[in-house]
Amino acid sequence: MRRAARRHFHGSGTPGFTLLEVLLVLTILGFLGAMIYPAVGLLNNRERERITQAKMEEIRRAIVGDPDRFDEAGRRIIGGYVGDMGEWPDLWEARAEIKPGFTGYGWDNPGNMSSGLGQGPDYAMNPANVYFRPSGHFVKGRWQWHRPFRKLSNDTVNNYDHIGGLATENEGQPRGLWTRTPEELPTNLGTAPDIYSAPGEDLGDRWRGPYLLPPVNHKPEAASHYAATDAEYAQLAPTATGPKAWEDGDYTALAGGEHFDEKEAFRLLQTDDRLADGWNRALRFFITDDPDQDGETIFWILSEGADGRATYPTKGDWTGGNWIINEDDTMAREFDPDNPDLGGYNPKAPENLDNIIMKIHSSEWRAIFAEQNRRKRQQTEVTLAAIRRALVGTDTPAEGGFNSGFTGAMCRLPKLFHWRQADLVWDDATDEEPPVPYTKGQPRELWTARPYTADPAHELDPPAWGTWGIGWQGPYLPPPFGAGEKEILRDGWGREILFFRDETNNSLLVLSRGEDGRFDFGDDLDPTEPVDVTTYDPADPDGWNADNLVLRIDANHWQGARLTLHLTVLNATPNVTKAMVARGLNDSGDPLTEILTAPDDLPDDWHVPSAFTYDATTDPPAISGTRQLVIWDDTNNNNQVDSDEDHIVIPLTLHVHKDLDNTLRYLTIDADSHFPREP
Hints:
By secondary structure, this protein is α+β, with helices and mostly antiparallel strands. Helix content is 16%, strand content 19%.
């Protein structure tokens, strides 16, 4: 009957299902779906959590590099942004939103813009004029942030950072991870001469990024349920009770703070120029003190998790129109449930239970940097000592050391050569008429006798008989590695060592910029600027020179050599036997020679007490270094040593001495034993 009924019902031999069976199957599937659906949602959130953690790890590597990289000594290598810049990346928010009642000049008048709108270079904000929130607008249905971006700081003077500080709730992003110019100032601000130039802050040559690809919002429609137009965004309310005037810092009605603000919830889903988590919401970043290690800091990366909610420190309370500051209410403070008014981040708050947090500690890299910088500083000190020896031959020239350096051989400081990019040459002066000597550059004469690449045929004169021991005897330093503009002396940090020539004081200042790579001295864009080395301030107000390593070579380090020579020449020929020393060069580059002649009224033995005397009164001063005393028979009486005239050359070392007694020398020469004469 059952089978026949089936055949009759279907009109064929194909088996079928009764209505009861179909309903039973649907019921079972419904039960299974009810059981499986939560599991599917849980797995989805777990996958998003995994994606979030992977993104955080990618960011961490962009900041401090691969944790598994070590040098040959087994020391951790710090890479990424911190490895290049030596500090955390700054946090940047889009331009602050100007309040409707603002009556000054805004971004539509950059030449006369009112102060306190959050613009660089000081980024100061006046809460009477702006909200403490980033701004943007819709362009063709897509949200765009208003440029420029504003660098966040912890303002402990005016406390204008209660929203936006590095250690409290903010919407800042580490933009330096993907751009060298994180401010993106679209136009110059101010009027001459105080113009703040676009594109604003530049991270400089130490920046070798990008360390991450610029973030792009792949789901711009994700926030469309909040707003799709500027008008809809303006109507977003801080509570679920409906639209009302939104005032940043109005915590009277908001027990939990800004996490109830729909405007912020909308902004967190706008991830162009914002690093996002696995739920496509902007990650939060904080930079705080490390409560466990004095002087150290923590860089926080935080995702608000699956529920998209979190509560943060607010650094105080807004009550009755006044801001009551609580400096301890920061992310770094451990929350005390028994004393919640003390502030701090509460990980056990219901909104925070699913937060995902990664912390990077500065102690992870500061100790490594301290050791690296110690070694780099030592290396720089060795390099500066080598430069000193190349210049004046000793580490303590004023103490009377022997000058085997460039100044002893050439009787002057080296010229400074500048790379002219237009001509692709090194030269010591501009190509204008008349040429202007460079006061900043590289002392190429210390390592090559052909320092002028503009004129390779020009070569420094080597020592010769006619120059009496004066002439280029280098190289005094090994040639630096590199070609063209990269052929420069470098310090332990790999940066160019700077040289400043002071013509007035006849001095040379040699400078390494130290750990921070900064210095404050002169105009680094003008290589012909007159330099006064006495104005270099090691304690400049901004602290840029505090870690500089500086070597200064003054004229008294190599000029003012002292000597008292008592000379006796046995068997001298009157009016023929002569003695001569060149103590340096004159302004024209000719030897400063002194000639003594055996007088007629002397017997064969010629004794000259204090024959050659150089001291502090010698004008011009004698140059320290190796000099040549020449004694010869000047048979043609031309006061020159000719090739066919008998002579003897005796080296003299001239020192810059403090003690005159150390300069006294006695010398006796028998002319007959040195000069073959007819009987």
